[in-house]
Amino acid sequence: MGIRKLASILICLPFLLCLSANTVLAVRGQEESLRGLNGVTVEVEILTELMQDGLATKQIQSDVVSQLQNAGIKVYSLKELKNIAGQPFLFIKITGTKIQDNWKFYTYSINVHLLQDAYLARETESDTYRVSTWFRGLTGHGYLDDIRVRVKEIISIFINTYLSVNPI
After folding, report:
1. Is 6 exposed, middle or buried (0-12, 13-18, 19+ CB in 10 A)?
2. What is the 3-state secondary structure (H, E, C) of 86-121?
3. Is the pLDDT of residue 129 over 80?
4. Would you state the pLDDT for residue 44?
5. Where are the domains of the chain?
6. Residue 119, pLDDT score
7. CA distance linking residue 61 with residue 67, whole number of Å
8. Cβ proximity of 118 and 37 under 8 Å
């Protein structure tokens, strides 16, 4: 086993161990945090190595925006977002490590958070905090096209959850 492959496994192992706990903890009550949202803005962050090999931020952004709009969910620009209560922000972060240089085969992690401004009920002042109110994440291995497919799968879950509490 090569050093790079071993390093990839060691990097992904904590994600795999934490993923189940995060998903189970995050599922409870997430639907209600989407109720009443009129739309979201979308931001994508991709690790440099994946971008260098051809996974384009603009392509993932376009895929996600198209999926949301096709489902009837409004997608705000960053300029519009400033005037929207709670400033709902769908954040997609993709990280990965190449396992085979000549095959462009990766271990990867995809995390999708809906971030919103919220406040603590116990505080008397109206300070708001940006918090994740909806989350799905996964780890896997595959090619760059596999990563795009998996992002689309997670966004489909978001859309179904959103529509379950905001029927169109």
Report:
1. exposed
2. CCCEEEEEEEEEEEECCCCEEEEEEEEEEEEEECCC
3. yes
4. 97
5. 3-165
6. 78
7. 10
8. no
Position 22 scores a pLDDT of: 36
* Bridge partner list, 23: none
What is the C-alpha to C-alpha distance for residues 77 and 25, in angstroms, rounded to an integer?
30
Q: Indicate the pTM of the whole model.
A: 0.81
The answer to whether 61 and 78 are in contact (CB under 8 A) is no
CA count, 13 A, side-chain hemisphere, 57: 14
Distance in angstroms (rounded) separating the CA atoms of residues 49 and 98:
8
Rounded CA-CA distance 105/114 in Å is 29
11 burial via Cβ count (<10 Å: 0-12, 13-18, 19+): middle
pLDDT for residue 31: 87
Task: Give dist(CA 33, CA 113) in Å, integer.
Answer: 12
Q: Which is more confidently placed, 111 or 103?
A: 111
Tokens of 70: 């096709």
CATH of domain 3-165: 3.40.50
